[in-house]
Amino acid sequence: MNPDRFDRLVQIRRHIHAHPETARKEFGTTAFIAEQLTAAGLAPQIFPGGTGLYCDIGDGRGPLVALRADIDALPVADEKEVPYRSTQPGTCHACGHDVHTTIMLGVALGLAQAPEAIEGRARFIFQPAEEAVPSGAHDAIAAGVLKDVAVIYALHCDPAGEVGRVGIRTGPITSSLTAFDIQITQPPAGTAPGAHPADLVMVMAKLITDLPTALQNALPPGAAMVASAVFGTVNSVPGPDGRPERVTSLGTVRSLSREAWAAVPELFERLASAIVSPYGVTFNADFNQVAPAVTNDPDAMRVFDAAVTSALEPGARYETPQSLGGEDFAWYLESVPGGLARLGVRPRGRATAYDLHSGRFDVDEECIAVGVKLMRETLRLALTEYSAR
């Protein structure tokens, strides 16, 4: 990549990183992206909610290939001492969405200089609210971004991968995600067994201790029939006598297969009710099926794989395992084929790096050039491959 162009993309990334905005508040980020595209002679379309946008490049001939980036930040304090540290207290690009956005902008701005270089159309989707529930994928799809799309691609930063390398996997690459909101309360007066009210904190502790194992043991055996329950927060509300009258917990269940994902709500509620029932408390649970697993299409991944080989250095490709992370890119793949790959961002020679969602997470910015080369080549190969269909 031309050094001047690379420097410009680094500055774009650092601007986005220094001005993070959380889900459905990405008005400044949206405006900044739109300004870059408009200055290049393109015509971005902002989503009805005012956050997120898409932009088409190319003529009406041939297939339409979409590239998607997410643009939201996390409610996490930036703990790095760098010139581009977040200027927004308690908000940080700790999941690499600034990098994803910069890479797709880099491909779009390059194509804007020579749109005749592609036969077909490219659609660049800058999606808000990936970290929210419900997520911004639904907003983007409702805005019509998948209309006429033949195939869609995305990247996600991977601190486990060294910069210059790309993780490829066909089939499920993330986990399905279910969010839960549970509440344990004292039963109505006079209905509880025994003379004394239950210790609701103790009952919740029992549930936290016993449910994860019970849930896993209740699923049919098999490598993909895994459901990992994590209780993220626990809160209690004291009554007039100081004893908790209500205890709540928010958390997630991550499943490796669609079958396990579908089974989680009913199974979770049945097992949890059985665990707490001896204590005579009232138990309620609400569930949100946040996203299925991102399941990479075999044909789409053959194109991605070929692009890694042709665009990057020998040995760039590595086989990446299925993770327990969730990713709302899965919702696009419910309607069109596509694929997600993992972009190595760990500096060369460093054995470890801070993980995603850490306030110290950062990337080797060489990954921007790697990502632009990869996605530009993926777009070129996909337009050729899908034009024959």
Describe the protein.
By secondary structure, this protein is of the alpha/beta class. The protein has 2 domains: 3-173 and 293-387, Zn peptidases (Aminopeptidase), CATH 3.40.630; 176-291, Alpha-Beta Plaits, CATH 3.30.70.360. The chain has helices spanning 3-18, 27-39, 97-112, 136-142, 200-218, 258-276, 298-311, 330-333, 366-387; strands at 45-46, 53-58, 64-70, 121-127, 149-162, 166-168, 171-172, 176-185, 227-238, 244-255, 282-291, 295-296, 317-319, 338-346. Strands 1-2-4-3-5-14-6-13 form an 8-stranded mixed β-sheet, sandwiched between helices. Strands 9-10-8-11 form a 4-stranded antiparallel β-sheet, covered by helices on one side. A two-stranded antiparallel sheet has the order 7-12. It is elongated and about 75 Å long. The mean pLDDT is 95.
Instruction: Give the topology string: H per helix, E per strand.
Output: HHEEEHEHEEEEHEEHEEHEHEH
Q: Strands of the largest sheet, in order across it?
A: 1-2-4-3-5-14-6-13
- The unreliable regions are none
Helix content percent band: 25-40%
Largest sheet: 8 strands, mixed
Number of strands: 14
Structural class: alpha/beta
CATH architecture of the largest domain: 3-Layer(aba) Sandwich
Structural Rg: 23 Å
Q: Estimate the strand proportion.
A: 25-35%
Q: Structurally, how many domains make up the residues?
A: 2
Report the total helices.
9
Distance between the termini: 32 Å
Reported by name, the CATH topology of the largest domain is Aminopeptidase
At the first level of CATH, the class of the largest domain is: Alpha Beta
CATH superfamily of the largest domain: Zn peptidases
Mean pLDDT: 95
Shape estimate: elongated
